[in-house]
């Protein structure tokens, strides 16, 4: 039904964009004198509908949508954003209550109520998009609302990580009038309540954000507007930075470009090197006649030289990783190094011969051609070189763009394929739970009842996450024993910025998602 009031609100909202873009929200000398801050990245969103994305689209969502909880600068645990307060109301971590801030509105002026929160989260499960985040809500039974501001989440089992789930951009709050309960939006329009609203969007090329005057949350905008430009590769992005066509780069800097910025520093550019928790790993298809054999997987685990990959391909801008849980998170182990030690062809040969495999094993390795950075193809060439040099394998390498690549691994087409993982939230649970079970983030069933039925439930009943170390260590050892997933490296976060840009150091939340509102021009303050 046509909603006349909504229509008028939108006309006013559209008309006001030019005023927002042309008039500073700050004092004289504000960033608007030089136009919006322009951020470059190689990670373009796959969709603007939060119910349809479990990928780098979250980068944009964090800035245009709002979640009940999020991470203010310096926080490592979720804090209220759209919510005024949230807490478990029982001792078993099964009932979680949130109260919304008063007077919340979407960017077009429509009220944001408890009903909108329920609608936003329920539709994720109802739509259950193949590339969507429904898997994050496995512990949610039902949602109950009371009035306009009270939301109660009833869980089907204890889950102390549920607040972390609510803080992911997947749980972005959308307007029920604009987002169907049973299907995804396809018109590239956004009605959110985050710090920014979209002024213009050119899919795959750029999006321009302007301050949302209706926003109520913890973010304190240090700029009036941000334009995000999407690049195909690092070299073109850095070229644009050096030419002052963009102000900041984030996500996708190649090792050679990082090295050049480090070694040949320029007085008008700054490189920020921060800790990261993103990981790269191999996935083995258990239905493949070769990849499905444990001996084959373990022989590969015995040969792979992570240090060579980190040094030769990534120029030491990443670190070797020996567990699916990265360094820096509570519960991290070095299980693959503890069990396999240094790379050894004789040990790998024995693993295969003991299993009756005496001929070179033929395998096809797949990678995505337009995600995880331009070194991905080089890394797979290095893996091929290492494995074939052993005389134990013959490797064929194939690649596809991300959108068709995802479809391929969900259909089980790949014997071995590469994936990267940027965490949903900074907890060891999120580097184990998404990859196991019949329905997981990889589209490749990985039944492991010890993990899914015992270790994860036991750890999620513990609100003090420091007390989950034993469970997480046991789960990681099971992953090592199965070798269904082989970790390769752990990344670091690099931001390159023009000398007049500040706020980059504060811009990353614990999931390494960029909060654009911290950026500002030094000359303006």
Can you summarize this structure?
Helices cover 28% and strands 22% of the residues. It is built from 14 helices and 19 strands. Helix 13 (449-460) runs antiparallel to helix 14.
How many domains? The number is: 2
Total DSSP helices: 14
Tell me which CATH architecture of the largest domain applies here: 3-Layer(aba) Sandwich
CATH class of the largest domain: Alpha Beta
- Share in β-strands: 15-25%
Q: What oligomeric state is this?
A: single chain
Distance between the termini: 48 Å
**Uncertain runs with pLDDT below 50, 5 residues or more?**
1-32
Looking at the structure, the CATH topology of the largest domain is D-Maltodextrin-Binding Protein, domain 2
Number of strands: 19
The Rg value, from CA coordinates, equals 24 Å
CATH homologous superfamily (4th level) name of the largest domain? Periplasmic binding protein-like II
Characterize the biggest β-sheet: 11 strands, mixed
As a percent range, the share of helical residues equals: 25-40%
Shape: globular
The overall pLDDT, averaged over residues, is 90
Structural class: alpha+beta
